[in-house]
Amino acid sequence: MKIKRYVVREMQEAIRLIKQDLGPDAVIVSSYKVPAKGIAGFFMPRLLEVTAALDEPHEINFRLKRAPVQLAATAGNSANSQSSPAVALPLKQQGHGERTLYLTSGRYGARRPDNPADSQLAEGPGPVGREVRQGVERRSLFEMIVNKEMEAGQGGDPVFNWRRALIKMDVDENIVERLLSDLNSELSQSGSEFENVYLNIKRQVIRLLEPAYIPTEKTRVLTFVGPTGVGKTTTLAKLATKLSLNENKKIALVAIQTYRLGAMEQLQAYGDFLGIPVEVVMTPAELARVLENHSDKDFVLVDTAGRSARNNGQLLELKSFLDAVGEPQDIFLVLSLTTKNRDLNKIAFEFQKIKCSKIIFTKLDETETYGSILNLVSAYGMPVAYLADGQGIPDCISEAKPRSIAELLFRGVDPDEVMAT
User: Where is the region Disordered (predicted)?
Assistant: First the structure.
């Protein structure tokens, strides 16, 4: 077996060299990105290291007593030939050059390989049949890998590479097309570098997000809603701690307690730690009264039980509480970024019934793709107010802006690697 390693800029160059050195029967066994050598390698696009192998078959020599043409005629005129398709086998014969051997009903026929691709593969008997199958399997595997690499690289087309990278980030395909709409014109400009293309796409992301961030009047009542298990109470505690300790604001915590067990104890523990009042309400009227009693507070943070987006009754019950608030309020829809994109869309659509105003994404530390943030902002026009990336209080939460979301979206993306894929 022959094994060779190539360090190239792109897969197409490797395929050309492999075919040139090892022939079309070679198989690519591994490929991965490597940095260029030397200090300058840190500032250059990564190279591609490709390893290929060729399993050298034993050469088959047949001593033919009749001429190849006569053999082909005999095979073609056989009574059994009509029911048994021919099998093509590359054959090297001493003194006759390279020919193609055909197996038909156990007989042998040969001709020069005018167009071997037109031949049809069938099972052959004995060692000859095995050689046929092994040879065709090697060629088929190599062609499959070549086609896959060609489809993946598309000849190094940067638009295709960026489209693939954005889709891997879970960005909706329609949004991807919008982001790449003017990339061709960017690339056509003389002297356009990889970094310029990357910055262009980031600017497009920021422009797409900015319309949702229209300045609005600050509100005193902050209400947290969403499905179960997304971290609403923990997120509320993070913001309460920031407002109380970092900004010296006077705050109160309110829990809408209808059926969730254990939530009150958790919220009370946060209140005792911060030295702030914690109230529990069971009806919309009680909520209105508690808000009035705490009119001296800078902020009142309202915690709610998780509601299923599929349960209209629970959403309508929650809406009755929110309608009882007699002043402007921010209703934060708290969502986990680990939720599937399709489910996030469903949840956001159903929670629009209670007129959510902003989104908070949690569990950023439990995923590697952030395209759902861009998808929801674009679809519903609600800005993302905060991003939470852990359980730490209050450090693991930050305010979200278009620029910070764009930075998050491309976290871990090497633009040079995408362009050189």
Answer: 107-130
What's the CATH number of domain 214-400, 1.10.246.10, 3.40.50.720, 3.40.50.300, 1.10.760.10?
Answer: 3.40.50.300
Residue with tokens 């040079």: 416
- Of 192-196, 262-266, 292-296, the least confident: 192-196
Beta bridge partner(s), residue 5: 51
b vs e for 191-221, b when ≥16 Cβ sit within 10 Å of the residue's Cβ? eeebeebbebbbebbbebbeebeeeeeebbb
For residues 102 and 88, the answer to whether their CB atoms sit within 8 Å is yes
For residue 374, pLDDT beyond 50: yes
Closest C-alpha to 14, from 38, 2, 32, 39: 32
Say whether 76 sits in a helix, a strand or coil.
Answer: helix
Confirm if 318 and 280 have CB atoms less than 8 A apart: no
Taking the alpha carbons at both ends of the chain, their separation in whole angstroms is 29
Two structure tokens written together for 108: 């042998």
pLDDT of the residue at 26: 84
| Beta strand 27-34 pairing with 221-225 | unpaired
How far apart, in whole angstroms, are the C-alpha atoms of residue 44 and residue 46? Answer: 6
Give this prediction's pTM. 0.62
Q: Averaged over 384-410, what is the pLDDT?
A: 90
Judged by DSSP in three states, 340 sits in coil
The ranges assigned to domains in the chain are 2-56+140-151, 68-122, 157-209, 214-400
Q: How far is CA 164 from the centre of its chain?
A: 8
pLDDT in tens, 29-51: 777 676 655 444 445 667 888 88
pLDDT digits (tens, 9 = 90+) for 116-155: 444 444 445 555 555 545 555 555 554 555 455 445 444 4
Contact 151, 138 (CB under 8 A): no
Share of the chain above pLDDT 90, in %: 36
- Per-residue pLDDT for 188 more than 60? no
**pLDDT > 50? residue 78:** no
Which residue type sits at 377? V
Distance CA 52, CA 19 (A): 10
Looking at the DSSP assignment, which residues form a beta bridge with residue 349? Answer: none
What three-state secondary structure class fits 116? helix
Q: How far apart are CA 211 and CA 66, in angstroms?
A: 83
